[in-house]
């Protein structure tokens, strides 16, 4: 037992869903540009289920013999909650070309659960945490 392990499982039945809402105000406006600030909320949910297990490396203590693909081995369920504070802007580069973008600073909370169905010692592990980060977005648009 022991050594390097690299396993392969089928992923079925999971999914991703999300929702983002921002509320803001443009404090600088002109015919060629606008700049504003916003506050918002983002929710991201993801869930995954791993079925079966095949060892790809030399650890003969894990997934040997191969676990059939009808056996659900691992379930992962994560909810990310983020408060967004940011700036957004848009400018008209030419008559038919515009550039818009935003930058948001995030305060994020993770509520996660990792469940290994065949290993009683790690039946349900909470994976929770807090963090912060930055989101950036830019769009170059063409008017018709």
Task: Give an overview in words.
This protein is mainly beta and 144 residues long. Helix content is 0%, strand content 74%. Strands 1, 2, 3, 4, 5 and 6 form a six-stranded antiparallel β-sheet that branches. It is elongated and about 70 Å long.
Largest sheet: 6 strands, antiparallel
**Termini distance?**
65 Å
Portion of residues within helices: under 10%
Provide the structure class.
mainly beta
Q: How many strand segments?
A: 6
Using only CA atoms, what is the Rg?
23 Å
Query: How much of the sequence is in beta strands?
Result: over 45%
Mean pLDDT: 92
- Spans of 5+ residues with little confidence (pLDDT < 50)? none
Taken in chain order, the helices and strands follow as: EEEEEE
Q: Total helix count? A: 0
**What is the molecular shape?**
elongated
Describe the structure concisely for a colleague.
With 144 residues, the protein is mostly beta strands. It is 0% helix and 74% strand. It has strands spanning 7-11, 15-29, 33-55, 67-92, 97-116, 125-142.
Label this structure with key terms.
single chain; 144 residues; mainly beta; 6-stranded antiparallel beta sheet; elongated
SSE inventory with pairings:
Elements: E1 7-11, E2 15-29, E3 33-55, E4 67-92, E5 97-116, E6 125-142
Antiparallel strand pairs: 1-3, 2-3, 3-4, 4-5, 5-6
């Amino acid at each position: 037992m022991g050594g390097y392990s690299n396993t392969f499982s089928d992923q079925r039945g999971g999914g991703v869903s999300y929702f983002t809402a921002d509320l803001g105000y443009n404090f600088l406006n002109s015919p060629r540009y606008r700049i504003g600030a916003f506050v918002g909320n983002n929710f991201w949910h993801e869930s995954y289920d791993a079925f079966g297990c095949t060892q790809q490396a030399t650890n003969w203590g894990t997934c040997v013999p191969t676990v059939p693909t009808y056996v659900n081995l691992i379930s992962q369920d994560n909810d990310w909650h983020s408060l967004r504070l940011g700036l957004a802007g848009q400018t008209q580069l030419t008559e038919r070309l515009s550039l818009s973008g935003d930058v948001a600073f995030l305060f994020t909370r993770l509520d996660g659960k990792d469940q290994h169905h065949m290993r009683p010692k790690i039946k349900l592990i909470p994976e929770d945490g807090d963090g912060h980060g930055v989101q950036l977005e830019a769009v170059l648009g063409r008017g018709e």
